[in-house]
Amino acid sequence: MKIGLFNGVSVFPGEDHRSVVERLVEQVRFADSAGFWAQWIAERHFTPFTASGAPSVLLGHLAAHTTRLRLGYAVALLSLYHPVRFAEEVAWVDTLSGGRTLVALGPGGSPQEYDAFGVPPTERRERFEEAFQIVRAALEGERFEWRGRFWTIPPIQIYPQPTRGRTFWLACSSAEHVVWAASLDAIPLLGQRSNDEVRHQLAVYREARAALGDDAATIDGKVRQVGVIRRVMLGRSQAEADDHVAQSQAAFQAAWRHVTGLAADADLPPPRYERADVIAGEAETVVHGLTELALTGVGHVVLAIGAGGLGVSNEVLRFNLETLAERVLPAVEAVAMA
Fold first, then answer.
1. What's the pLDDT score for residue 80?
2. What pLDDT sits at residue 272?
3. At what angle do helices 55-63 and 83-97 cross, to 10 degrees?
4. Is pLDDT above 70 for 108?
5. 216 with 301: CB under 8 angstroms?
6. What is the residue-wise DSSP string for 311-322?
7. What does the pLDDT read at residue 314?
8. Which of 79, 173, 171, 73 is nearest to 128 (CA)?
9. Cα R_g (the chain), whole angstroms
10. Which letter does DSSP use for residue 162 in this model?
11. Which own/partner pairs from 257-265 qualify as long-range (CB within 8 Å, at least 24 positions apart)?
12. Backbone conformation region of residue 213, classed left if phi is above 0, alpha if psi is from -120 to 50, else beta
């Protein structure tokens, strides 16, 4: 199981955005040298809590500061884009990174984002499906044209020439989405789900691929690419990790209220992780949790420290990254090789 990192590009109170980027570069340089597989960057708009409204710009910048780490969109809100423009951005990031770009897509977004970009929320799935087909065609690097419901594109070829035969991940939060991913010939990137839910969604994906006519070897290869997002929080004790988790979740709730326009007294889950999708504790606890996740059969995990870094100090983030690199990754790899 490959291990990558998720970063929501959080903004601390009073922090200017240049400092945010400098901190991000420091973290990603460390991940590049420490042996992590990938760094995934979120896309969020119109919130003071994050600085990820232009993921292609951030990923292009990170490409200049890394040499081996794969750099991924997680997830690009494709329904908000003109698909040809997005394909060109991916091609440029791929060129700048030497072919290290990963692309996870989704139709998601907040009502505020849809309103601001002039996209009717009721059209988001149809727009996504059409945009996805255009992006896939454009990133094959050949001359193509398109005539659909939302876009009409004359014969064009994008430059620079992209890496061909690209894998696309689709953000999936339900079994229905997993079937949808199979129908689009995409790989599921599963949201925060328990191990039992992960097993179930992998089985659903296998069944959907088989129904499409894939043979067993092809299905096995596709399943090995399935990823899952998993929240983690390391501490010097279980109590310390739990406290940091609570702080992070409270910050996430505040950000979510801002993005969605929810009132301060609107009901939300209590400010602690109570689901089975978070692994919090000392290094041994996290090693055990990731080992159990690997046994579900997923191909890679995207680790989000807390709620993608929200509400967690730079010192806590650094401790988590260093402990993951020094104590968790080697132990998980040793178990996998045993």
1. 95
2. 39
3. 10
4. yes
5. no
6. T--HHHHHHHHH
7. 86
8. 79
9. 20
10. P
11. 258/47, 258/48, 258/49, 259/44, 259/46, 259/47, 259/110, 259/112, 260/110, 260/111, 260/112, 261/111, 261/112
12. left
> What are the structure tokens assigned to 201, written together?
């969604």
What are the CA-CA distances from residue 264 to residues 11, 209, 253, 254, 260 (Å)? 21, 44, 10, 8, 11
What are phi and psi for residue 258, nearest 5 degrees?
-65, -45
Question: Which residue would you say has higher pLDDT here, 12 or 21?
Answer: 21
Question: How much of the chain, in percent, has pLDDT values that exceed 70?
Answer: 91
Query: What are the tens digits of pLDDT across the range 173-232?
Result: 999 999 999 999 999 999 988 999 999 999 999 999 999 999 999 999 999 999 999 999
* Cβ atoms of 206 and 223 closer than 8 Å: yes
| Domains of the chain in sequence order | 2-337 (3.20.20.30)
Backbone angles phi, psi at 73, to 5 degrees: -85, 130
Residue 55, pLDDT > 60, answer: yes
Which helix (H) or strand (E) element contains residue 233? Answer: strand 227-234
Distance CA 287, CA 289 (A): 5
Q: Which residue has the tokens 């191990």?
A: 195
What is the spatial distance between Cα 234 and Cα 289, in angstroms, rounded to a whole number? 12
